[in-house]
Amino acid sequence: MLIRAINSQRRLKPYFYSQSAKVGGVGCLFGFAVAYPLFFFIASSFGIESDIPIRSYDGDTVLVVFTLCFLTLSLSLYTFCALFAFIYYGIKCKKGYIDREELINIVFKGIYPKRWQRGL
Description:
The protein is mainly α. Helices cover 73% and strands 0% of the residues. It has four helices and no strands. Helix 2 packs antiparallel against helix 3 (59-95) and helix 3 (59-95) packs antiparallel against helix 4 (100-109).
């Protein structure tokens, strides 16, 4: 599914690729801005202080914290990219440029309409 979404975005015509990149960029920016403070909360929940070298902690604890932070980042990026795509492309749906099925495909699957793609 991820490969299909990446290929769908890569084949977009320049105008639609630019729109997609801007919406995704803003979503990622907000997603990272939300995830960053959560990293410190997760680390402090496990007793990891930011002023003590990480090598002084137990390896299993560090692995768990790293895994939780990675999952938090992934979830935050996906959530905010989907939210901003839903807002941006939802307006386009309201105006009649795309239908609801295309909106769902763009927002949750990353698959864009065929008419927006090069060479199709």
